[in-house]
Each structure stands twice: as C-alpha cells, then as structure tokens.
C-alpha cells in the first residue's frame, strides 16, 4: 500500500552521533563549516584536494568537505583496522562502471562503498559496508515550487493522484515520492531519469527493496535497502564532535 511509504518510520537521533554503527546515516548542516579553518592537506587525499579546489562556490566546498569528514569518521568508527589511519590516507572517488562513490585506503586493497546526499547545504553520508543495494536521499520541502505541475509532467499518474487528492499534504507527498525515487536510483545504480515516470511504489516492490522515510525540519529523507530496514540517522550538531576520531 502506498500509504505505508508516507509514514514517518526512519529514526532520527538528534542528541549524539553514538552509537554509530554500519547502518548509520550521519546528517549535518554544512553551512556551519568555515572551510578556511581546516588543514585540508591533513584531512583530504590528493584526489579530494584536487576536487574541492575545482569547486567554484563556497557552499559547494562546504558540502564537499562536510561529506568527506562524515565518511571518514564512519569508516574509522566501523573498522578497527583503519581507526588510527590518517584521514588523508582515505580517499573517496566516484566509480563510473558501478555508479558508486568508493572509499579507497592507501596501502590496502579493501574498498568500501558509500552514499551521499545534499540539499540546500544540509548533507548526509553513509557507508555501505556489505555492498548491498542501498541508497538514501535528502530533499528540502520547497513550498514555492510548482510541485503539482511538475508531478503532472514527470510522475506516474498514480503518483499524481496521491499528490492532488489531498491539498494539505500535496507538497509533502510530492517530495516523499521524489526522495524515494532518488534513493531507489542510488540503490539500483539506475539513472533518475529512468525512474521519474514509473510508479515508484511498483518499482520498489518489483525490485524487492524496502524503504523507510521521515521528515526532519524542512527536509524529507528516504532510505531504500535490500537487506535491512534498521537504518537510522544521527545528527551531527557540530563538526567538532568528530574531532577526536579524525584528529583535527
């Protein structure tokens, strides 16, 4: 039943980044970061340094640095083998064949898969330790967007009906469907363009994937996974919470 996908089932922990296990998505407002305060050479790999240098907008630099710090924190917390590894020896690099962001370790053949999302400066990061089908998405609920018009143009008619039948919840339903589609695209490595017009609820059932979602402040968040529905989010209130593990 589509109604199940509109329930607020995704758990958000606002008080601490602990416990931080393999099924944790870290959330952070990257606009808090002052990029110039960080020693980027100590925190980012040479590959990542080249990428952040090419970012033109300051906001993009904030989001890039924040997501990489979150990923490195998650890796060091969830793998004792790399807990003492300097952060700049951990490198996140996009892999075109798999359409995944992979985490490489200097001097090791071990590779981790990961997933990122960002919207209006709010970012999320997660490791995919088991290399399962997994994806999540964050989207700001923008009431000024012509979401009904957009839905009629891009979405499946069944989804349009769900959005237009309840005017009070139309925006929330539009963005919930959007985050589900984006999360599904990341989980299955399919282009989002191919998942806009199909009914996302049918596609989730066909792919045998589970989904949980919630709203957090102005944002809608959805998680799609094949092995577990116990993913939860932890909000990092200050990047200094990561300081002890990342040594900055």
From TrEMBL:
InterPro entries: 4-PPantetheinyl_Trfase_dom (IPR008278), 4-PPantetheinyl_Trfase_dom_sf (IPR037143), P-Pant_transferase_sf (IPR050559). GO terms for biological process: lysine biosynthetic process via aminoadipic acid. One of its GO terms (cellular component) is cytosol. Residues 134-208 form the 4'-phosphopantetheinyl transferase domain. One of its GO terms (molecular function) is holo-[acyl-carrier-protein] synthase activity. Keywords: Transferase. It holds the Pfam family ACPS. Belongs to the P-Pant transferase superfamily. Gsp/Sfp/HetI/AcpT family. This is 4'-phosphopantetheinyl transferase superfamily protein. It comes from Pseudoalteromonas prydzensis.
